[in-house]
Amino acid sequence: MTVAPLAVTVSLPNDQEASGRSFDEAELSLVAEALRSGTLTSTKGTMVARFEKAVAELIGVEHAVACASGSAAVHSAVAVVDPEPGEEIITTSITDMGALAPILYEGAVPVFADTDPITGNVTAESVAAAMSGRTRAIIATHLFGNPADLVGIREVAARAGVPLIEDAAQAYLARTPVGLVGAVGEFGAFSLQQGKHITCGEGGFVTTNDARTAHEVRVYVNKSWPYGQPDPDHRGLALNYRLTELQGAVALGQLGKLPAGVATRREIAALLDEELADVEGITPTRAAPGDTHSYWRYVVHVDRDVVPGGPVAIAAALRPQGIPSAPRYISKPAFRCGVFAEQKTFGQSHWPFSLARPEAVDYAAERFPGTFAFLDSVLVLSFNERYTPAHAAFVADGLRSAVESARTEVA
Ligand SMILES: *Cc1c(COP(=O)(O)O)cnc(C)c1O
Q1: Which residues are near ligand 1 (CB < 6 Å)?
Q2: pLDDT grade, residue 1 (50/70/90)?
Q3: Are residues 164 and 152 in the same domain?
Q4: Statement: residue 380 has pLDDT above 90
Q5: One domain for residues 88 and 220
């Protein structure tokens, strides 16, 4: 005879479908408005323009330029920096490939700074150590919604006279002592992809305080066509990276919900922090003093000395309880992916790696102790604005019992 489990199963909201997203009449009426207007391209319509104005205001920057994806946002920023082939852009290997491929497309060499073993973010020290005479820009990614050290990294960038590009795709409304993320560097890059804080399926935008930079990004997003200029010409090489009016309408509707969504994430994360305080071997990740996290995901570290099997064992014990998690996050640093490890780019050319300094493409593990330590202990828990205190309690209980079972199985 089998005994039915006693535990009441809670179903966690999932940001890949309706349970974890917040779409309602706000988006519906804006989409209807866009459709009724008959204009679905942002070059003639008003929705994308309205979204750009509203999101710039919310983030506290002078300009925002919408584009097709977060990858396109990073690409546009790098393209406007306009590196010479073989010049270097400092970045992180713990990120979305959409933040790295654009560097290669622009003929620049991504140089990976090591990351902090707890936050997974690059640090002022690791960025400084990766700088060379060829450095043309620094990309700082605010992983999971936890701000990178913008004060320190901005100083390193300023000392070298290179622009700072903030990859804020995961960090909407995260706060630092020098401003919201995405408002501090020369460029901010955001994503509107399905799994981000707000979404229109696919999409993104670039933020900047500089009018000329904003103009250059806009021209880049439009196949290098300066709409509205007296003597327009395709003066450079660029793609169609536009957001449609339909996407703009959904994004505009979503924007109104962003502050409340981030506030909810912070409240639920605080509950989880509290609930997990007494769970030995599990350490939630916090923002640095003075910074405010915006919790794209809820991230803990698992101490292998306390929990045999570490994050992989915990994830395996969480799965049957209906609690999805990603041990090791992206499982390996980006430089272990084929595009870097085998330099698989344009035909057999290995370009632009073929132009790189040997140290710039030296991916030996001992050069990245923080990165490997981070991946070895991190456990990334699914999270979204639809989580309630009951969901937090369910996840905390799940983690507590996962730790217990991992420890007793070995004992
Ligand atoms: C999602 C993401 C991107 C890419 O955005 P897409 O819209 O998927 O192209 C870039 N960087 C980071 C850190 C991301 O999380």
Answers
A1: 69-71, 95-96, 98-99, 141, 167, 169-170, 191, 193, 204
A2: very low
A3: yes
A4: yes
A5: yes
Nearest partner of 70 among 324, 251, 213, 326, judged by Cα: 251
Cα angle 305, 309, 310 (rounded to 5 degrees) comes to 65
pLDDT, one tens digit per residue, over 116-133 is: 999 999 999 999 999 999
Q: What number of CA atoms fall less than 13 Å from residue 55's CA on the CB side?
A: 34
Q: Which atom of ligand 1 is nearest to the CA of 202?
A: 7
- Find where tokens 């996962």 sit: 402
Cα(206) to centroid(ligand 1), Å = 12
| Residue 396: domain span | 258-330+372-410
Single residue among 237, 257, 277 that ends a domain in this structure? 257
Same domain, yes or no: 145 and 242 = yes
Pair 244, 200: CB distance under 8 Å: no
Q: What's the farthest any 2 CA atoms get from each other in the chain?
A: 82
Cα dihedral sign, 188-194-199-203 = positive
**Co-location of 209 and 316 in the same domain:** no
CA dihedral 358, 364, 366, 369 (to 10 degrees): 100
